[in-house]
Amino acid sequence: MEPQPVLPSTFVIERRYPASRERVFAALSREDQKRRWYADRDGREGTEFEMDFRVGGRSISRTRMGADTPFEGVELVSEEYFHNIVPDRRIVSAATMTLGGRPISVALLTIELVATDSGTDLICTHQAVFLEGADGPEMREHGWRVLFDRLGAILPEA
């Protein structure tokens, strides 16, 4: 059986948060804060999350998909490597995702933070190739939108 062609995709998500750029960056870069909005998600069990936030460092998230998904009990692993960090301004990382041990995507993620009079604008550019069995660009974009909503919800407490 021949592999299916890869599906390349780019999307941009923008969010405006009523919090300082420093606070938003802390929620992206501190393991305890990122865990709250990124790893501790409804519908998934057994989440493990570790982050070594530095250039050359990595973040890894392992979860078991919940009963409300088509992949109940299957392990989803996201492994991210940090390539460029400008404190309070930018994070560039590359990530792979596997589902049940099979690679489903490789992505380049650029997050930019811009100070505004009312807080911070977050601009996320997600460039990826989706492989066989992947969730696809629409689902991935939806997932990131949900995550950035969760990020916004924890900022007052961060």
Automatic annotation (TrEMBL):
Q: Which Gene3D superfamilies match?
A: 3.30.530.20
Task: List each copy of the Activator of Hsp90 ATPase homologue 1/2-like C-terminal domain by range.
Answer: 19-155
Keyword Hydrolase present in the record's keywords: the answer is: no
Cross-referenced Pfam families:
AHSA1
Q: What class of enzyme is it?
A: transferase
* Alphabetically ordered keywords of this record: Membrane, Transferase, Transmembrane
Q: Which GO MF terms are attached to this record?
A: glutathione transferase activity
Q: Which InterPro entries match?
A: ASHA1/2-like_C, START-like_dom_sf
Q: What is its EC number?
A: 2.5.1.18
Is Transferase a UniProt keyword of this protein? yes
Similarity-based family: Belongs to the AHA1 family.
Q: Quote the protein name from its UniProt record.
A: Probable glutathione S-transferase-related transmembrane protein
- Organism of derivation: hydrothermal vent metagenome
